[in-house]
Amino acid sequence: MMATGFFWSYTDEPHASRRKQILSQYPQIRELFGPDPSSFPKIAVVVLLQLWTASLIHNASFLKMLMVSYFFGSFLNHNLFLAIHELSHNLAFSSPVYNKLLGIFANLPIGVPMSITFQKYHLEHHRFQGVDGVDMDIPSFAETKAVKNAVTKSIWVIFQLFFYAFRPIFLKPKPHCLWELLNFTTQLSLDAALVYFWGWKSLAYLILSTFVGGGMHPMAGHFISEHYVFNPDQETYSYYGPLNLVTWNVGYHNEHHDFPRIPGSKLHKVKEIAPEFYDNLHSYRSWSQVIYMYIMDRAIGPYSRMKRTLFRKSD
C-alpha cells in the first residue's frame, strides 16, 4: 500500500556531519575543492552541437523530430541542465559572475530560461535538505493527492520536469532580479533568431529535447533516484552507472551533497579516498530501473520523501 504521509526525520540532514567525519580522517579531500577549468569547453561543444542540430532539422517531419529529440537531443539538453546544476555551485570559474554568464549560455539550447532561477532554489535544497516549506525539491500537497497508482505515477514521470520547474514558482515565489531578466531576454533573443532563420521546427526540436529528456527517459531517472526513499534509513542515494559520463557525475549524489564544492569531474575520487563511508549505503546501477521501481512498487509514491522541521540553534 502506498504511503499516506511523508517520512519525518528529527535530526539534521546527514551530509554535514559525514563531511566533518570524512575531512577529519582524509583532509586531502580539500585538494579536490574548486572550479574545473574544463567545464567551459565541454559546455561550449554541447551548446554548439545542439544548436547546429536544430538548424539541420528545420524541415524534418514530426516523427523524425521526435526520434532525434528522444535518442539524441535529450541527452545533450539534459547534459546542459546538469551543467547548469554544476554552475549553480560556481564550479566552472572562481567568479560567481562568470558562472552565471556561462549558465545563461548553457541555457540556450534548452529553449526556456531557467538557469538563474534554478540556482536560487537549488542552493536552498542543499542548505535546507528536506525542510518542510523550504526545500522545493519535495512534491507538493497537490501532487501527493493526484498521484496514487501506476497510471498516475507514469503520467507524473512523463511531466515531472514541469512539476520540478513550476513547483517552487507557485509554492515559494521569490523576487525577480536583473540576472533573471538577462537570462530571459538572452533566451528569447536566441529563440526568436532560430524561428527567423530556420523556422519554428528548430525551436520546437530544442524544447522537445528538453521535455522528453526530463520525462520517461533514462537520463531523468536521477530526479527520482537522488532522494526518493526506497530504504527508510536513507534519504540520499548515489548512482554508479555509465550515464555519469554524460551527466557531470551527478549520480555521485551522496558525495555531491557531502562536498558541493567539489566539481563533478572529481566526485568519484571522494568515494575512492573514503570508500568506507559510501560502500555500505544503498545505491543504484540503472536509472531506468529506478523509474520502473517507482512506477510499479505500490508502496512508493510522492510521499516517499524525507522531511524535517527547521532546526534553529538556541541563543
Q: Any key phrases for this structure?
A:
315 residues, two-stranded parallel sheet, 14 helices, globular
Describe it:
The protein is mainly α. The chain is built from 14 helices and four strands. It has a two-stranded parallel sheet with strand order 1-4. Strands 2-3 form a two-stranded parallel sheet. It is globular and about 55 Å long. The termini are far apart. The relative contact order is 0.18. The model has no long low-confidence stretch (mean pLDDT 95).
Short description:
It contains 14 helices and 4 strands. The protein has 315 residues and is mainly alpha-helical. α3 runs antiparallel to α4 (96-107).
List the helices and strands and how they pair.
Layout: E1 7-8, H1 14-25, H2 39-56, H3 62-88, H4 96-107, H5 115-127, H6 141-146, H7 150-158, H8 160-171, H9 178-198, H10 200-213, H11 221-225, E2 238-239, H12 253-258, H13 267-273, E3 283-284, H14 287-296, E4 306-307
Structural class: mainly alpha
What's the gyration radius in Å? 19 Å
Spatial strand order of the main sheet: 1-4
The tally of helices reads 14
Helix content: 40-55%
* Mean residue pLDDT: 95
Strand content: under 5%
**Total strands:** 4
| H/E topology pattern | EHHHHHHHHHHHEHHEHE
Unreliable runs: none
